[in-house]
Amino acid sequence: MTSPQIQCRWGILSAAGIARKNWRAIAQSSSGTVVAVASRRKDAAEQFIRECSHHTPQRSSVDALDSYDALLKRTDIDAVYIPLPTGLRKEWIIAAAKRGKHVLAEKPAALSAADLEEILDVCKAQGVQFMDGVMFMHSARLDRLRETLTSPSQIGDIRRIACQFSFNGGDDFGKSNIRVNSQLEPFGCLGDLGWYCIRFLLWAHQYAMPTRMVGRTLSTLQGEGSDNKVPGEFSAELDFPNGSTASFYCSFVTQNQQWAHISGTEGYAYLEDFVLPFFGSEVSYEVCHPRFDVRGCSFHMQQHKQRIAVEEYDSGHTPAQEINMIETFQSIVASKTLDPSWGEICLKTQRVMDSLWSS
């Protein structure tokens, strides 16, 4: 049996924990492989490669480098994955693009919409693809949910959407994690978790921009060595052009929740794991058409619930959403035809976050 042809050779800038997930996704993809990993310390890159290779080997040998620039100078790398902190991201995305590397970057994409516009301009000028790493955008569940939302008999007109993404990081997180360091991640939970909520709300409204946005920092955290406090809890209210409203809550101090609730004139849809699917071989959501039934002196609320599912693993096996993301990115690279829509969606997300942050 012949091995698949490698169409996309990857470099990873940083040995961050989230990079392990995309290391596996690249290895499990149809035509990608990691060629090199760079860290500020070569031993950190070596350890990352050793531990990841033990769990999921790549199709080729992987080099450890002690310099991001050394990785970008290599001619045997087509694309880079950049999970560096937001405070460092712009510099290295632009450096990668100027070296002709396609870029998949973690979120938030930049410190401001102006910075992201500069990033996108450089990527366009250099003829390289840009995409942010929002994995749930590549789940087949969204395609089914879109069918539900556009069916007049299912949800009807959307009137209200609410969602929450939170986890309780604990004491150690609040002291030492980079996400509570204002130099590295100044947006705190808004950038780390709220980005997903904003993206989902935009997706549900087919990327129509809100007409009104109000954000509120509910509590703050300040890690050791951080110059300023960052949001530990954040809430937002948004109005959309179709007359619907939306809200979200994100937090580093409340237990794991990642639900979304879409209310319409005919029914509602509920996703209890819209960002990170629960363990299993299916991803699903519920559509409900409750009916209040009165018969004489008997009052009954009937649920009329339908579960809609697609066959998709939660993680690590085709077609998990992170593998779909890598496949989508690699297909763009292979086609040699850029898809600007990913940058446009990212920029809209950034603009909403900027407005909520400034409010």
Written description of the protein model:
With 359 residues, the protein is an alpha/beta fold. It folds into 2 domains: 8-135, 3-Layer(aba) Sandwich (Rossmann fold), CATH 3.40.50.720; 140-276 and 278-311, Dihydrodipicolinate Reductase, domain 2 (2-Layer Sandwich), CATH 3.30.360. It contains 10 helices and 16 strands. An 8-stranded mixed β-sheet has the order 8-9-10-7-11-12-13-16. A 6-stranded parallel β-sheet has the order 3-2-1-4-5-6, sandwiched between helices. A two-stranded antiparallel ribbon has the order 14-15. Helix 1 crosses helix 9 (321-335) and helix 8 packs across helix 10. The radius of gyration is 21 Å and the shape is globular. The model has no long low-confidence stretch (mean pLDDT 96).
Total strands: the figure is 16
N-end to C-end Cα span: 58 Å
Largest sheet: 8 strands, mixed
Under the CATH scheme, which class of the largest domain?
A: Alpha Beta
Mean pLDDT equals 96
CATH architecture of the largest domain: 2-Layer Sandwich
CATH topology of the largest domain: Dihydrodipicolinate Reductase, domain 2
Unreliable stretches covering 5 or more consecutive residues:
none
Can you tell me the CATH superfamily of the largest domain?
Dihydrodipicolinate Reductase, domain 2
Estimated helix fraction: 25-40%
Shape: globular
Strand order of the largest sheet: 8-9-10-7-11-12-13-16
Beta-strand content estimate: 25-35%
Taking Cα atoms only, what radius of gyration do you get, to the nearest Å? Answer: 21 Å
| Tally of helical segments | 10
Secondary structural class: alpha/beta
Compressed to H and E, one letter per element, the order equals EHEHEHEHEHEHEHHEEEEEEEEEHH
Q: How many domain modules?
A: 2
